[in-house]
Amino acid sequence: MKNKKITRKITQGMYVLTTNNGGCMVDAVSQISAGDNPLISVAVMKNNYTNELLKKNKLFALSILAKDVNPNIITTFGMNSMRDINKFENTSVKEIEGINIINDSLGYMICEIIDSIDNETHTLFIGKLIEADVFKDDQAMSYNYYQENKEDLIKVTTEKGKTAWVCTICGYVYYGDTLPDDFKCPICGVDKKLFKKKD
Ligand SMILES: Cc1cc2nc3c(=O)[nH]c(=O)nc-3n(C[C@H](O)[C@H](O)[C@H](O)COP(=O)(O)O)c2cc1C
Questions:
Q1: Are residues 172 and 123 part of one domain?
Q2: Ligand 1 pocket check for 25: Cβ under 6 Å
Q3: Are residues 165 and 138 in the same domain?
Q4: Phi and psi of 5, rounded to 5°?
């Protein structure tokens, strides 16, 4: 038996990962070690533009999102690629160590990349915490909360009169009567089984 539903019980948060010239939404963040120089890991899909940037850059930052974050931050950073839009154009940020930090967040961590591990789909970047601050002490948004409330948080609108398939993970919309056999979400990479049909 491999009931993957249980993985939803792993507590993950909601973060904007930034680096020089880009960034994206992530939930796959973990603190590897504590102490004076904590190590933080983040898993980034290989087809994300942010992955390309991280392979060239020395630093990454994670801005931790609050439960009441403006959902535009999630759509801007999680449902678009910096290949197509400038995500920072309409987002309030402050620059620290040359990296954009999201103002609408609970705080940030800046890490120096010390190692990375590639698998077929993702790269796990490991960073040493070099700078961090707390902006406010509100409740963080968990990935589970996002999953349970995303239909209210993020309104996915589809064009009338066209059959649309909506990714239940990230909200990407594919138009067409059927999804191609080997279709995978071009934004978050999930299988076509996780798409819902909307007429
Ligand atoms: C809630 C949410 C969580 C996400 N978590 C991750 C993640 O942990 N790792 C990842 O690589 N992409 C994750 N994504 C997908 C990227 O944010 C998305 O593919 C983004 O458009 C990539 O942008 P880029 O091409 O500018 O890097 C997530 C998206 C959403 C909406």
A1: no
A2: yes
A3: no
A4: -55, -30
pLDDT band at residue 168, thresholds of 50, 70 and 90?
Answer: confident
Specify the pLDDT at position 158: 87
Total domain count, the chain:
2
At 172 the pLDDT is: 84
Q: Is residue 199 pLDDT above 80, yes or no?
A: no
Q: What is the CATH number of the domain that holds 28?
A: 2.30.110.10
Q: Which two tokens stand for residue 20?
A: 């020089």
Residue type at 81 in one-letter notation: S
Supply the pTM of this predicted model. 0.87
Burial 81-93 (b: 16+ CB within 10 A, else e): bbeeeebbeebeb
Residues 48 and 18 occupy one common structural domain: yes
17 C-alpha to ligand 1 centroid (Å): 9
Ligand 1 centre to CA of 24 (Å) is: 5
Q: Are residues 70 and 165 in the same domain?
A: no
Distance (Å) from CA 77 to ligand 1 centroid: 7
What is the residue whose two structure tokens read 């939930």? Answer: 27
Domain that holds residue 85: 4-145
- Which position has the higher pLDDT, 71 or 151? 71
